[in-house]
């Protein structure tokens, strides 16, 4: 069984499995009731119990429940890429969810042929936010008991007369993640206010420049939205990215990406970290990352890198100006449309496995657990 041309199991080393089994257990044990309502978007962690080998295969991702439909995506811990999900909910809360080929978030190989790789069948407990059942490979030869548990619910806030909104996750274990939830909510509320003010100022400027006695030609759909999506979560860190979209007139929307990673070194203190905190003081990691990013973008056919328009990212890396997120498999750099390729190509990502930069990663830092 393959996912994006990679089997999941070679990436699930024993040490990684043990780490993430403990993560899932600690998150689920700390979880408070997280009822799933219609049109809810939630973040889940899951376990597949491989009873024959006495091991647990862990995963996480987001799901949206809308009427009788379920859709979303998740990734296996320690693996690259994501798997698209498509499913249904019966009147008795029975569920049937299919794993599809990935075509979404920063996938390493998005052109893999569309087909069903596995099916999760079971029951949804809406009050507790849990799905229990069986994961079965598409050929029916492999099956595991499985459990998917909600750990966060996405909330949306809107403001103003224009299309201004923010969406962000709040974690269900309030006591354990109260400080993180408070920081996320405060930051996103501040963003919402700033974005509403920005569109109001744009409207004022347009009205000021409209000749007296003529009808102002204002875009009817002035838009500014910010969605904070989880890339990976554990009790020790949250790595997420903002997708900011805006329309203030012109031919199309503009999209921007910003990475945001929070670390909890111990206790209840959560703080945002900079990329350089992942690496040793020896700045040779910048040259190494630059070479790997250029190689990856060239391999993917990113036009402005291939044609030589962009040849170097060292200055942006040194200043911490590249958007990045991390998972147990590696660090990913995200590029907005038009930054390294054409607008039609959409966002572009360069995934760098930890093993390729292992010698530069701080063993006592936020990513140290992935290179030990």
- For the largest sheet, list the strands in their spatial order: 1-2-3-4-5-6-7-8
Query: Which CATH class of the largest domain is shown?
Result: Alpha Beta
Query: What is the H/E string?
Result: HEEEEEEEEEHEEEEHHHEEE
Strand content: 35-45%
Q: Which secondary-structure class do the elements indicate?
A: alpha+beta
Q: Indicate how many domains the architecture comprises.
A: 2
Mass-distribution shape: globular
Largest sheet: 8 strands, antiparallel, barrel
Q: What is the topology?
A:
Elements (H helix, E strand, L loop, with lengths): L13 H17 L9 E11 L4 E12 L2 E8 L6 E7 L4 E7 L15 E10 L4 E8 L5 E17 L3 E9 L2 H35 L14 E11 L3 E11 L6 E10 L7 E2 L11 H16 L3 H4 L7 H5 L4 E5 L2 E6 L12 E6 L19
Parallel strand pairs: 9-10
Antiparallel strand pairs: 1-2, 1-8, 2-3, 3-4, 4-5, 5-6, 6-7, 7-8, 8-9, 10-11, 11-12, 12-13, 14-15, 15-16
Can you walk me through this structure?
Helices cover 21% and strands 38% of the residues. By secondary structure, the chain is an alpha+beta fold. The strands form two sheets. It has an eight-stranded antiparallel β-barrel. The protein has a three-stranded antiparallel sheet with strand order 14-15-16, covered by helices on one side.
How would you concisely characterize the structure shown here?
By secondary structure, this protein is of the alpha+beta class. The protein has helices at residues 14-30, 174-208, 284-299, 303-306, 314-318, and strands at 40-50, 55-66, 69-76, 83-89, 94-100, 116-125, 130-137, 143-159, 163-171, 223-233, 237-247, 254-263, 271-272, 323-327, 330-335, 348-353. The strands form 2 sheets. The chain has an 8-stranded antiparallel barrel.
């Amino acid at each position: 069984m393959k996912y994006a041309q990679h089997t999941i199991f070679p990436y699930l080393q024993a040490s990684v499995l043990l780490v993430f089994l403990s993560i899932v257990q600690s998150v689920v044990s700390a979880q408070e009731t997280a009822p799933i309502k219609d049109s809810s978007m939630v973040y889940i962690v899951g376990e597949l119990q491989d009873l024959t080998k006495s091991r647990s295969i862990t995963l996480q991702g987001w799901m949206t429940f809308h009427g009788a439909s379920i859709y979303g995506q998740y990734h296996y811990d320690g693996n690259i890429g994501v798997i698209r999900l498509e499913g249904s909910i019966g009147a008795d809360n029975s569920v049937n969810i299919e794993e599809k080929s990935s075509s979404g978030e920063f996938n390493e190989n998005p052109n893999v042929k569309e087909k069903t790789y596995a099916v999760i069948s079971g029951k949804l407990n809406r009050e507790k936010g849990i799905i229990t059942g069986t994961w079965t490979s598409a050929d029916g030869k492999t099956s595991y008991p499985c459990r998917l548990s909600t750990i966060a619910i996405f909330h949306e806030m809107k403001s103003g007369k224009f299309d201004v909104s923010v969406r962000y996750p709040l974690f269900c274990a309030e006591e354990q993640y109260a400080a993180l939830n408070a920081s996320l909510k405060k930051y996103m509320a501040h963003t919402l206010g700033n974005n509403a003010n920005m569109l109001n100022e744009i409207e004022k400027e347009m009205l000021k420049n409209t000749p007296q006695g003529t009808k102002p030609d204002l875009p009817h759909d002035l838009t500014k939205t910010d969605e904070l999506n989880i890339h990976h979560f554990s009790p020790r860190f949250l790595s997420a990215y903002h997708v900011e979209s805006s329309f203030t007139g012109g031919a199309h929307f503009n999209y921007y990406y910003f990475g945001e990673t929070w670390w909890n070194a111990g206790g209840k203190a959560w703080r945002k970290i900079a990329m350089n905190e992942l690496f040793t003081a020896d700045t040779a990691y910048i040259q190494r990352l630059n070479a790997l990013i250029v190689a990856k973008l060239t391999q993917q056919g990113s036009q402005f890198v291939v044609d030589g328009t962009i040849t170097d990212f060292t200055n942006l890396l040194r200043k911490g100006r590249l958007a990045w997120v991390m998972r147990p498999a590696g660090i990913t750099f995200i590029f907005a449309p038009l930054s390294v390729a054409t607008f039609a190509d959409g966002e572009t990502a360069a995934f760098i496995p930890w093993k390729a930069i292992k010698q530069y990663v701080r063993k006592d830092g936020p990513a140290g657990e992935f290179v030990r």
